Amino acid sequence: MSINSFPDVTRYWGDMAQETDIREQALTAVRSEPRIGRHFKPEALAIDGEGIATIEAEVENVAIKRLVLERLAATPGIGAIVDRLRVKPAMTMSDDGILDHLRKAYYQEPAFQQLAIKEREAGQVKLMRAGLPGFRGEIEIEVEHGVVTLNGSVPSLASKRLAGVLAWWVPGSRDVINGITVDPPEEDGPIQIEEAVRIALEKDPLIDASQIRVGVRGRKVHLTGLVEREASRDAAEWDAWYVFGVDDVINDIAAGS
Fold first, then answer.
1. pLDDT at 55 over 60
2. pLDDT at res. 132
3. Is residue 189 one of the residues assigned to a domain?
4. 187 in any annotated domain
5. For residue 26, what is the domain's CATH number?
């Protein structure tokens, strides 16, 4: 008896073959990106029958993480992504250490002085600092296994994005999941991304932001200008990558006199 006599079995093997084809196309697309390379091998990459891709790996930096996700999202047949990519931390830190660094950063940030700051641990939420009377807005922080999750509500997209950048600046952070809402809602676009990148550059003590020009097309950031040191050039690029919503960064900043 042929396998075609069993339509459910035929459908199963057909679905499996299709999912395998999509997976191979996705891997080929990811590895064809020169900044990722052909040696990229995720710990897990699965495509289910609904076109949902689940990827798990530790990557060297946030640029590779964003590029992998962008290439996956552009693969035909993939409609959604479960992101379990984690960035290798610049420094090993405990969750409490990450939380302490981030708490201090938020307390000291002038743009957040009106906001309440909360922390979630073991399912319990603690109010760490009350917001100003009559002002609505809060940031809730949770850190688990080096992954920072941000929730709450802030009055602007710029504030949401700045909260994410400050979380990425903590050297032990392995990922930042930015679930903060903006109230009232704002329309997003290249102008808003450009504003957020400029804010990050201006707040970075390693950079003279006046020497850097920022252009944004879609969700791709283009950096140009002249800085004194290579470290400043690199810092500017990472700051752009840390901004929520950025898919790619082209760094044409020159370093040296």
1. yes
2. 87
3. no
4. no
5. 3.30.1340
Q: Can you state the percent helix, strand and coil of the chain, rounding each to 5?
A: 40, 30, 30
Coil, helix or strand at residue 97: helix
pLDDT of residue 124: 94
Do both 203 and 168 map to the same domain? no
Taking the model in full, what pTM does it have? 0.89
Residues 14, 79: one domain?
yes
Residues 169, 123, 158, 138, CA torsion sign: negative
**Residue 147, domain extent:** 95-182
Question: Residue 61 class from Cβ within 10 Å (0-12 exposed, 13-18 middle, 19+ buried)?
Answer: middle
How far apart are alpha carbons 189 and 187 in whole angstroms? 7
CA-to-CA distance for 40 and 60, rounded, in angstroms?
Answer: 11
- What is the tens place of the pLDDT at every residue in 203-242? 999 999 999 999 999 999 999 999 999 999 999 999 999 9
Question: What are residue 176's DSSP bridge partners?
Answer: 148
Q: Identify which of 19, 83, 7 has the alpha carbon closest to the alpha carbon of residue 50.
A: 19
How many folded domains does the chain comprise? 3
Closest CA to 59 of 28, 22, 25, 84: 84
Asked if 38 and 65 sit in the same domain, the reply is: yes
Find out whether 195 and 236 touch, Cβ atoms under 8 Å. Answer: no
pLDDT at residue 13 in the model: 42
For the cut 70, the answer to whether the pLDDT of residue 169 exceeds it is yes
With respect to residue 190, please indicate whether it lies within any of the assigned structural domains.
no
Confidence of residue 148 (pLDDT cuts 50, 70, 90): very high
